[in-house]
Amino acid sequence: MNLFDKVTNYDVVRPIFFDGMTLLFGGFGGVGTPPGLVDCLIESGVKNVKLIGNDAGFPWLGMGKFICLERAQSLLASHIGSNPVAGELMNQGKLQVEFSPQGILVERIRSGGVGLNGFLTEIGIGTQLAYKKPMIRIGDKEFMYEAPVTGDVSLVYAKKADTFGNLVFDKTARNTNPYVAMASKITIVEADEIVPMGELNPEEIIVPGVYVKYIVPSGGYNWKWIWEMPDKLSRNAPPAK
Amino acid sequence: MDMGDARQIIAQRAAREIKDGMIVNLGIGIPSLVTDYLDSSLRVFFQAENGILGMGPTPAKDADGNLSNAAGYPVTILKGGSYFDSALAFGMIRRGCVDVSILGALQVSRTGDLANWIVPGKRVPGVGGAMELAYGAKNLIALMTHCEKDGRPKIVETCTLPITTYRCVRKIITDLAVFTVHDEGLLLEELMPGTTLEQIKEHTEASFTCSPAIKQE
């Protein structure tokens, strides 16, 4: 792949996925989750995937579409309340779920993405979310150690990419994407618009292209949002926060 | 009172906690109804942890899938508003930039422990951003109906549900009453219209004291 032309198609990226891989994905309730790459992941047939992302999406959108196929082995996320199937799979022992506070999770991804070794926090001490995380005493204060997160493959959704992989995002679809883009061996970006180098204002680039391996063109969201589906509103009560 | 009315009563009372010039984060559930009762003259910036400061109301038309609140519903952005990534969203939350965080609750204890992320074996929503809002917000207000549907009290001596954050709630607003949380325990500050002190005593497991205003009634 040419350093300055990373644009390719879904047939090229599909074989990158493998059984048992750790997959990081951007998005918040499916907003900012790359729809074409989720379908590509589904088509690849891979299983036992270890997923890391903000949430389980909804059953019909975001990474929820893949989770419902029971081909994820584990999920590290901040909540799964919008995807009742994920909750059922968890209670049946078919999906191993580890919960992390939302901002702590993104900092763990960031830590992995910027070559640091994790961080200390007071948040979550004494709760079930402390799991068996190491405790560290400094002076008279006790902290919990949060380990960095990295992946084999990252899936990212951008509004615009240039051919080097410099990225610009769209409103609240940015969310975890910039850090997800930094934390895996291979980062694949789905972009609504792909432009030649020089078209993006260097001051406005959120993720420099050095983190990006492949870019594929997006066909846009291919799902309906919950607010477009009045019949779903009562059955999918939003999660407690 | 049916559950819908109860939720509206709670939201209406909670709206009075929001003052001019505040940075406010509203949780999912009852807190999301609070904006319906805000005085339109207030200048307030709502922060949403999916990456907006200065969130505006639901668009009348042309909703955009990439501009939503933390529950995934379409919103708008006000003049002076900004977009940012999740790390920054929580950075400002932990750093104390949010004046008031209004969260839904499943249980609150006498000492202000909050439980709102899981009912083991039943509801598994997950913690989302609640722990960090509880940690960083200058003021944390918990909203919930006073009792479970089967009548069990939700204001308890000790939470039986898994804790989100210990000793974080400063005020509890239910459909029956308003309590503040102090080092000495709970103080009953207000009774909702039509509610008696006897009812509160009957439906509240945690011990509490009454503010002077209540005692006079």
Structure, explained:
The complex is a heterodimer of chains A (241) and B (217). Chain A is an alpha/beta fold. Helix content of chain A is 19%, strand content 25%. Chain A has helices spanning 10-13, 35-44, 64-67, 84-91, 102-113, 177-180, 230-233; strands at residues 22-25, 49-52, 72-77, 96-99, 119-121, 135-138, 141-146, 151-162, 167-168, 184-195, 214-217. In chain A, helix 3 (64-67) links the parallel strand 2 (49-52) and strand 3 (72-77). The termini of chain A are far apart. Chain B has helices at residues 3-15, 86-94, 130-136, 197-203, 212-216, and strands at 23-26, 45-48, 52-56, 76-83, 100-104, 107-109, 114-115, 139-143, 155-156, 171-173, 177-182, 185-191, 208-210. In chain B, the strands form two sheets. Chain B has a ten-stranded mixed sheet with strand order 4-3-2-1-5-8-10-11-12-13. In chain B, strands 7-6-9 form a three-stranded mixed sheet, with no helix packed on it. In chain B, helix 2 runs parallel beside helix 3 (130-136). Chain B starts with a helix and ends with a helix.
Features:
heterodimer, A: 241 residues, alpha/beta, Glutaconate Coenzyme A-transferase, eight-stranded mixed β-sheet, 19% helix, disordered C terminus, B: 217 residues, 5 helices
Shape annotation of chain B: globular
What's the overall geometry of chain A? globular
Number of domains of chain B: 1
Estimate percent helicity of chain B: 10-25%
The level-1 CATH class of chain B: Alpha Beta
Give the class of chain A from helix and strand content and strand pairing: alpha/beta
